[in-house]
Design a protein that fits this description.
Helix content is 35%, strand content 24%. It is of the alpha/beta class. The longest helix has 16 residues.
Length: 271
């Protein structure tokens, strides 16, 4: 492991992409870092609103008709866990990508390290966030935010979950991405799934949000996260190259938007 701040990092401030493109850009960023290019910290918005499925999640847990009728796209993450409803306004997402050799080999150590700027951002927002330290039972396993809490990567504030984080560990690079709840749309959070036996009160008793706890604007919350990621890595503000965008669009179309990947968990690009 090396001192991350001594490496070349770029900060890509919040951009809005659809679900397949967001997942593709994370993969392309990892490939860039592994090939000797800059490591990337980025903040992103999901447009349109998207349900991202955990890698092993069963497709029959999704209410596909509701998602289609309400313009909610569905894609599958390469990381595990349950589904996350990323509302355009209610979600703030980030990712960190770096060569695997520059990060701890231990999963727990890597989470602790890479969540450092996330906690700095929460502190700047005035949110008293920390890793979950008390177990809570699963309410509805298909939903990431309603599963039992894991102290390695689930972040809580005021006793309720406010952020989930996950890692995809390739041989040559590591991607950590995470979701921060800016606001909560409990009705839609439930409706994207198939027949959850829960009420909106159940959701609101388990999940909190930045807006509920602090009242700050989404723009200010995004800036706090961007600045924390940039300061932690001493990153220069950067952009994608045109080659990266082209490769990401191709990856999004061929993999992350495909029926094979999203319905069958089969990578159409694997040999």
């Amino acid at each position: 492991m090396t001192d991350l701040a001594d490496r070349e990092w770029r900060l890509i401030r919040e951009e809005a992409w659809d679900g397949p493109m967001n997942m593709a850009l994370d993969e392309i960023a990892a490939e860039t870092a592994a090939a000797g290019g800059p490591r990337t910290v980025r903040v992103y918005q999901w447009k349109p609103s998207t349900l991202s499925l955990g890698y092993r999640q069963e497709p029959d847990s999704v209410d596909w008709e509701f998602c289609a009728d309400h313009g909610i796209s569905v894609t599958r993450r390469p990381t595990g866990g349950g589904g996350i409803y990323h509302g355009e306004h209610t979600d703030i997402s980030y990712s960190i990508t770096a060569p695997a050799a520059e990060l701890p080999g231990d999963l727990m150590e890597t989470y602790e390290l890479l969540c450092t700027p996330v906690f700095s951002a929460f502190e700047e927002m005035g949110v008293p966030a920390h890793f979950a330290d008390e177990p809570q039972p699963s309410l509805y396993k298909p939903s990431c935010y309603l599963r039992d809490l894991h102290p390695a990567h689930d972040v809580v504030a005021a006793g309720r979950k406010i952020s989930g984080n996950a890692q995809y560990r390739r041989r040559d690079a590591i991607i950590q991405h995470g979701s921060l709840k800016y606001d909560l749309d409990a009705d839609t959070h439930l409706a994207v799934f198939t027949d959850p036996d829960l009420t909106t009160d159940d959701v609101e008793n388990r999940i909190t949000s930045i807006h509920e706890l602090t009242g700050i604007s989404r723009a200010d919350a995004v800036t706090a996260l961007e600045d924390a990621l940039g300061a932690w890595t001493t990153a220069d503000e950067g952009t994608w190259t045109q080659d990266e965008i082209n490769r990401a669009r191709e990856r999004a179309d061929e993999k992350f938007a495909s029926e094979a990947w999203n319905r069958n968990r089969t990578n159409p690009l694997s040999n």
